[in-house]
Amino acid sequence: MSTAPAVPTSRRRASITAITSGKGGVGKTFVSANVAAALTRQGERVLVLDADLGLANLDVVLNLFPKVTLHDVFTGRSGLQEAILKAPGGYSVLLAGSGMVEYSRLTPEVREQLQQVINEVAPRYDRVLLDTGAGISEVVLYTVSLADKVLVVATPEPTSLTDAYATIKVLAMTQKRYAIQLVVNQVRKQGEGRAVRQQLQQVIDRYVSPTVGQPVKLELVGEIPLDVNVRNAVLKRELLMEKQSGSPAGIGLSALGMKLRGVV
Predict the structure, then answer these.
(1) What pTM value is reported for the model?
(2) 3-state secondary structure of 176
(3) How far apart are CA 130 and CA 139, in angstroms?
(4) Residue 215 burial (C-beta neighbours within 10 Å; 0-12, 13-18, 19+)
(5) How many CB atoms lie within 10 A of CB 233?
(6) Is-contact 219 180, C-beta < 8 A?
(7) Which of 194, 225, 227, 235 has the fewest CB atoms inside 10 Å of its own CB, making it the most exposed?
(8) In whole angstroms, what is the distance from residue 204 CA to residue 165 CA?
(9) Distance between CA atoms of 216 and 228, rounded to whole angstroms?
């Protein structure tokens, strides 16, 4: 059943942020699920849309067992209201189905349906987070194109940085994204996130900005420490911000929420 109460039609449309990554395994869905809880704690009405169509795992992170998913909405078997669920942390979620091979490519129908869903939910919330798939597939890039802002999640590992750079380059060249936000996950020491951002920015300044004819700026909006509490929460399928909000990673996620809100 739906948990989203009606709101006045004159209400301002939600800010839409696509949370993406160059590769899998960097904690993108973990960040999406937990920063949504942080934003909710800070007073925002938040919806997370699992836009990793066909390979969804937000339900696993949140330990939810949805009877209705976006697939049911897309196929007309259910209405949108029935697919919006209450998640741990107090925010709302729209979950996608897993193993749906029909979502491995971007068809005109998928384009239209995804756009329509976002248009319908945007007036009901302060913020909509799109938890995209990883990489630069057509489906991922189209999902990102529907967002006002893009948040790239990376780790300090060389492969993650290489793939994050590739993602930023494609977004700048194909979508004219000249301002991109960065979260560095699994940092081992203070300041490592700033070093990662500087390293990426130097490569962007050298190879991407001259190509697009305009400076492409990478803004570091968060550093999330490497924290054993994260692994424990993932294994238990618990939300870190509910069980260990005072842990190092929890503090980093709270700071990320404040940064996204423009408080700091």
Answers:
(1) 0.91
(2) coil
(3) 12
(4) middle
(5) 24
(6) yes
(7) 235
(8) 8
(9) 35
